[in-house]
Sequence to fold (1442 residues):
Amino acid sequence: MLKFILRRIGASALVLLGASLLMFFLTINSGDPLKDLRESNDPNREQLMAERSERLRLDDSPWERYWDWLSGVGGCFTGNCDLGVTINGIDVLGLTQQAASSTLRLITLSTLLAIVVGVALGILTAIRQYSGFDYTVTFGAFLFFSLPVFWAATLLKEFAAIQYNNWIAVGQYAPWTIVLVAALAGFLLQAVLGGSTRRRLATAAGVFAFVAVMLFVFNALDWWRNPMFGIGGVLLVSAAAGVLVTALTAGLRNRRVLYAALTTAVVGVIAYWFTAPLLVDEPTWLLLIGLFVVAVVVSVAIGAAWGGYARKQAMLVTGITGVITSFVVVADILIAHWSDFLGLKSRPISTIGSQTPNFDGEFWERVLDMGTQILLPTILPTLVSVATHSRYTRSSMLETLNQDYVRTARSKGLSEREVIVKHAFRNALIPITTIVAFDFAALIGGAIITEEVFGWTGMGALFQDGLNAVDPAPVMAFFLVTGIAAVLMNLLADIAYAALDPRIRR
Amino acid sequence: MTTLDISAPGPVSAAGDAVLAFEGLDVTFKTEFGDVHAVKGIDLEVRPGEVVALVGESGSGKSVTSMTALGLLPRNARVRGTIRVGDKVVGGLDGRGLRNMRGNDIAMVFQEPMTALNPVLTIGDQLTEGLQLHGLAYGQKATERATELLDMVGIPEPERRLKQYPHELSGGQRQRVVIAMAIACDPKVIIADEPTTALDVTVQADILDLLRSLKDKLDTGILLITHNMGVVADMADRVAVMLKGDLVETGTADQVLNHPRHEYTKRLLAAVPHLGSGPGQFGDVAPVRAAAGDLPALELSSLVIEYHRLGKPTFRAVDDVSVSVAQGEIVGLVGESGSGKSTIAKCALGLIPAASGSVSILGRDLTRLRGKELKTLRKRIGVVFQDPASSLNPRLPIGDVIAEPLVVHKEGDDKSRRARVLELLDAVELPRSAYNRYPHELSGGQRQRVSIARALTLDPELLVADEPTSALDVSVQANVLKMFTALQERYKFACLFVSHDLAVIDLLAHRVVVLQNGRIVEQGAREDVLHSPREEYTQRLLAAAPVPEPLEQRRRREARHALLAQLGDEVAELRVDERPERPAPRQNEGGNASGLGGFTGGAG
Amino acid sequence: MNDIRNSNPGGEDYEPQVSVAGTDAVGLAAGGSAAPLPGEDKSYSQGQLVARRFFRHRGALTAMIVLGIVIVVAFTSIGVGPIPGWWPKDYTLQYDKIGDGAPTWAYPFGQDTGGKDYFALVMRGTQFSIIIAFAVGIISTVVGTVIGALAGFYRGWLEAVLMRMTDVFIVIPLLAVAAVLGRMAGESGIWGLAFVLGLVTWTSLARLVRGEVLSLRERDFVLAAQAVGTSAWRIITRHVLPNAIGVVIVSATLSISTAILLETSLSFLGFGVQAPDTSLGTLINEYQSAFSTRPWLFWWPGLMILTIALCVNFIGDGLRDAFDPRQNRTKD
Fold:
């Protein structure tokens, strides 16, 4: 396995090298870096041109320039990185560090969301093949495949952001909106859950009533401006998540696993109660990550203790439940800070930049600020990827469900849930890992565009400005960051592939 | 799953102790091309400890019948009639009841062991899940029971096997695992759907021995679905013959196989080649009339073929093989999967290179020729492949397919080519209207006829036939073989005939070459090799091939067991003596140390 | 057809092939003499069957009609080159503005800030975008098919080059390479742009074709052709590619939709079509700041892109279903 990974890394490094050569030569030949100066009427034109030629080393051969860049990058291994300077003499390394952090945040979030949502949708549509739900998702997928991202992003900016900001100033839903939203929710859920006509009607009616009442209550409490969740809510949601995860993986009949999951939720909430003072005021990222790791370890331990004969399954279930509980806790804290945040920033979703300049909130308010800023630029690349993933998952799942071993599993008396989760799903995931890796590069392309629309000074801007000025250093910095990210993503996909498919393990 | 109409129950079963009973079973499928009536009201019973063979050709509805017993038909199926499994009526069960029945009361052994097991789960996972599901054993207990089950079906080192994945096992071992899964919950009846079709003949004999001991020792009823009359003769107590959804004849094995009454059964049996009967079953084979001085049509000398694999040692598929085919002679190349027989055929066609040795066609070495000379030599070789589904280009009409070799070698004009194609269509007994048809409009047998016509277009001196009839139904195979012998008589081509079916080789080959793991085990005249074999491997192979006559097959089986004993091997059987709680087994002779050694499986 | 290969759930037994398989039994009944052929008298080639299936796909058919209308209107309304169209207004002229330039009967898409007729402008952009998309589709299909077929058939260095090229595009986002190339070719007009975009978009198609060819070259009919001495050229053109046509056509369709999105994105970023030429992407770029004051200037070009790409995708889906009838839709 290690040999396999090392070989992959070696091959990727060679590909990166070749691609960097290609990118460098294409970039320096894409135009004339002195064009603007040639056309200017500045009296010291000649001097400026000479200065720039000197800075970009235009008189050297392209190979020498490339070698210069490459050895600068090679310096990163010994601790003194040199990514060159821009056309205006600014150090690219510093620019890159800023830009990379915001762009990678965006891309990572998009990728994770796209995988989770896309795969889930793909499985649901495969199970409900040729249902209204399937057709709707299929149409939606085609729509997002065909969407010009830059155009849709502008629409999102104009409608979602500005309209929401106007609305949150009041924070009340009109009654007809509530009825509409509740009806929509009811319709969607019955389509997903399926069943006989009678059951569908019951589902739809139940969801409609629940959503409508909740929304009216929220209105009455002015919840949207002063939201709160509370420890009871955390317990309820975590426990529900535990039950759901159990139902999906081990089946509710397996009481040991179910109790293990519920224990995890309860322990999580108790831990929240005790650590709340630490968490709520001014935590650090390190503390949060540390607590998260502890939470996961404790959860898995609970699974191991409860599991008995189904130990492996129980540990998986409690681990997932632990992660979900942690996220619910974070969500609770964030929700509690929302009204303070509104106080600091009355129009919460601004459409420029990855964070509000000169924002002086506390830790959680800063997190909320980054969250609201990342929301819109993430949505579109995510949706496009969701479309791809859901289609691939659907066809892969349908293919798998037609296999002989699925028939064998059914003939043993396994329920549809066990057949799908245990036998079909894992096999269906194998081809998807490859697609995810391929799609990653497309996602970076999408990020360049949304960054442009939403005015982020990220990698996209670095690339665009660099290319416009025929300035290789920032363009190559963009390539370096995205290229390494893509290589890592591929490596992850390869490892996942090997983990999923015993036939290629060595 | 399936909607079963229970409002019209069939007559109450007379034999109350049947473990599986179909009464007036009728299945229709709704398809976009209209309804397909797959099963047309049949009655059938399986009693404990009894093997009922359901026989028929493809499309007869036998697999559909078996799937109804598990309630596992696709949703576009409409099932009428009553199906009883033990005391349960399948149509009356809800989803949970059905799932409870599957595995517990009725289990299934599928045809293809390569695909019947989930590739990403360990053998242990797949064995224990049924036990845990039906509440028989959990955790460590389930693992122990799984070990026991693997041991029962004769898999050596069961503890280690539990942690392995299906791809690490050979085909025969995988089928044993499938059988272990089927008996895990001690079902009353097992449906075995072509359980040995995908296996080599020696492995088939072992699996059949295992199934036989299973019904003897556990008193399980078996519904055996097969198209192979030899398997029927070997296993069945009673036989039911299906034709296009109808049961045309039922009776004991002796009644049906030796005294068939229905026209279709008679025809079906007449179409089965009988090992040991020699030539003349489907037309006479002309004697070889090559003069002593004639060059051999094909001469392989010291042929070695190797496959280079990335990151693995080179695999030697064929090792030092020397075979000669005289003009006008049919040489049968026999062996199990992985023996290299198809590789040799491809090399003789110049499709894969030889690592060393030579391939001479009429005295000219194929491996040394290039360009034009090679092309000229290729005119003198024809080829027929196994799979009728892939041997014809789906984009070309039949006329173009057959004329293609003429076009490639620029022979004749359009008119003469058309005349030649029509002549060949007559020769392979296809109507001339086939000229403008496309391959997908033809049945498997018809396509194989087209393949043969194409091979004969250039009037070759040598024909290489790679399992030309093994993908065909038995009656179709009989017709194709009949036609083949007639054509050979007429065109006098030499032929390298590759087959795994000894009976087919027996009826048309002049000489036989037996291969194992890329080496020649034995070669000689047909009657010597097939009727008095000298080598142990040939003896095993012959002993394992079943014949379609129950009494004779019983003699052959006993002779095979004697041979195995003499060679120091075990007879495959269920080992149950470690489980005293079992309902009194009929015989108890278990306790063997290991399974049978002869599992070459699907390697290569 | 035969039990040996028969391993679908429920068995192939219930599929419509039953009628075909049955004929062997009929042949048997006739005692081995010439067996009658199944089916009607009319014989369908694979192509005809595909066409029949395609026209039954309602979404694809609708998409085809809509796309046809868009193309016809885009090219006939303002004319192509020297040929005049039926639309009376010119995209270069500035007309008197009616009100704030919102859509009216005289100016169905409205007028831009300077009073130009926006319908004529959008039609011109659509023309350019469609020309580029189709040109890119054709170039990348030809290049991809040739390279994929050769790589799949001969393996060797060509295959190695293809796979490395693919690796490169996993590492560099397509948009980034296209932007660099687009900037280089921008001066040479839309044909130059179409050419360079075609040169970078063929890899996915080549991979698909290669995969298809890899499996086809192991098929018995190809082996049989080789055994009889057929030349490699004839095998590729007569036996391999005609059977890979489904993959090629479907991918070609989808590459057109990729191309239109890629081109408009590049033009939006300023690395694609350069003035005086115009495309739907440059229009959006030019007028995106006018969104709050003159939203129609923003809506029309975007909707045109969406319509074209959506239609192309639906046609591709219909073609895929038509060429690959495995996932037959049987309603239950």
